[in-house]
UniProtKB/TrEMBL annotation:
Protein species of origin: Leptospira idonii
Highest taxon of the lineage: Bacteria
InterPro entries: Porin_dom_sf
Protein name, as recorded: Porin
């Protein structure tokens, strides 16, 4: 510690001795005391405190939607005469990395905290009088919560907890980086989040450090219950919990994905940070990412309803999968089609297998992405598949601002009434056209989009022909991201 000297005449402080200078003795300068260990609470910290990194991230997505007469965003009597203003996402996340080899995160879904709270009533079966009123379980505030361990071999990461499943490309990208207002319809088939254990590795790392970011692989064993903040079961998400009117389904879900980036990933200060979906659009270099993945569940445990944004008002939304509500094996004598959610001796389990193939390509402002997903198994309707294709162009305006006109085609079909035939009302087509205005890349973003939805759920009263419902929708969305801390994208590249 440097010694200090004070001039007795002027009071000026010096670092060297001299005339009229007296050495300063700082109170408690060399005094230390051991803080007693508390009875409760935190007693210790990691040894290498200097290596610890904490990042706090938040997001606001404020949206206005107006729709045609047949949409859910209309008063039912006129087109585009009302606007629904609401928060699409309110997120707050904490990412912590301690001593380089471990870390953790907790991501909160705050829009669920301001969502509608529903009452649950208990009535007297004899009189019908209300006996008790309580709040129903919330959808859940936890979006992600996990602890990870960094493993040197193949530069791997082993993650324990609730997080995104390594399936479709749009699953594993943060919603902050979406170039479209919403993800494609096929992403609604399986839960986007699950609770379990996941291993992610850079498969070419042992062969060459230069190839490290080119090929990654992920494998996850999860519960298959969905994330607590998504459309999972909520407060408890362990497999063995007793649930009213539902069997114990102790079957894990398996997910796996491989992604190849032949031209490398995001580059910053001459360093390849790996592929960060949505960030590549701001670079002129040619970039390509190709992925394929699978998902397998012997038992489907959560409903997967079609998003109301994609479905007209007054029509019952179909479940994209038949989730299992009875025990394995079914009841003797039951017919094969004994209700789509019930097992039978001929259909002992309601399971699903999914495969997806996707890509993203950018070059000098041009942007293209696409995905094809197909699902099979006893829980999947016949011919369940979906695909999407997106084109856009990024125009730099200077100062970190960009303009991006963009268009998307989105398709989903399946025999949702289980009559072994595809009807016009079981094929959904969505046409999107929009404009992204990036004020500071994805940190501040304004999005103006129009969605033309073709569902053919309506029947002509005279001819009986299936016709489209007028349920097109216009969107205006503003996004602001908050990101503070010392962690860099190469250390942790995703916060949903």
């Amino acid at each position: 510690m440097k010694e200090l000297y004070i001039d007795e005449n002027t009071g000026q402080v010096y670092t060297l001795p001299g005339p009229n200078r007296k050495k300063m003795v700082l109170e408690n300068q060399n005094y230390s005391v051991k803080v007693p260990e508390p009875a409760t609470g935190f007693a210790n910290r990691p040894d290498e405190i200097g290596n610890e990194k904490l990042t706090i991230a938040g997001r606001i997505q404020f949206r206005g939607i107006s729709g045609e007469e047949g949409s859910v965003y209309s008063n039912g009597k006129s087109d585009f005469k009302t606007v629904d203003w609401h928060f699409r996402r309110l997120r707050l996340g904490f990412i912590y990395e301690g001593n380089k080899w471990w870390g953790g995160l907790a991501n909160l879904r705050l829009e669920n905290a301001i969502s509608s709270i529903y009452l649950k009533t208990k009535k007297d079966p004899a009189t019908g009088n209300v006996q008790d009123v309580s709040l129903a379980n919330a959808r859940g505030l936890i979006q992600e919560a996990a602890i990870w361990l960094n493993i040197p071999f193949m530069k791997s990461r082993l993650t324990f907890g609730a997080g995104h499943v390594p399936f479709q490309r749009e699953y594993i990208m943060t919603s902050a980086n979406l170039t479209n207002i919403e993800r494609s319809m096929s992403t609604l088939v399986l839960p986007q989040f699950d609770t379990g254990v996941m291993l992610t590795s850079h498969l070419l790392k042992p062969f060459s450090d230069k190839w490290e970011k080119l090929l990654t692989g992920s494998f996850m064993v999860g519960n298959g219950h969905g994330g607590p903040g998504d459309y999972g079961y909520g407060r408890r998400i362990d497999l063995a919990e007793e649930r009213p009117n539902a069997p114990k389904l102790l079957t894990p879900a398996y997910y796996g994905r491989i992604q190849w980036n032949p031209f490398g990933g995001l580059e910053k200060d001459g360093k390849d940070l790996g592929w960060i979906e949505g960030e590549e659009i701001f670079q002129k270099d040619t970039k390509l990412s190709i992925g394929t993945a699978f998902a397998s569940m012997a038992n489907v445990k959560v409903p997967s309803p079609l998003n109301p944004d994609y479905y007209p008002a007054g029509y019952t939304q179909p479940n994209l999968l038949a989730y299992q509500t009875t025990k394995d094996g079914g009841e003797l004598g039951a017919s094969y089609n004994e209700g789509i959610n019930k097992t039978t001796p001929g259909r002992p389990k309601l399971g699903v297998i999914g495969h997806t193939y996707d890509y993203t390509f950018t070059s000098h402002g041009f942007y293209s992405s696409g995905a094809y997903s197909v699902f099979s198994g006893s829980a999947a309707p016949q011919d369940l598949k979906g695909y999407s294709f997106t084109l856009g162009y990024v125009l730099p305006m200077g100062g970190g601002t960009f303009v991006m006109p963009i268009a998307r085609y989105d398709f989903l079909q399946g025999d949702f009434n289980w009559d072994k035939s595809l009807e016009p009302g079981e094929s959904y087509r969505s046409y999107w056209v929009g404009l992204n205005l990036f004020g500071d890349k994805h940190v501040f973003k304004a999005q103006i989009f129009y969605q033309a939805f073709h569902d053919k759920l309506k029947k002509n009263s005279i001819t009986g022909e299936a016709v489209d419902i007028n349920d097109n929708v216009a969107y205006l969305q503003l996004q602001a991201n908050f990101w503070t801390g010392t962690m860099t994208p190469d250390r942790f590249s995703r916060l949903e």
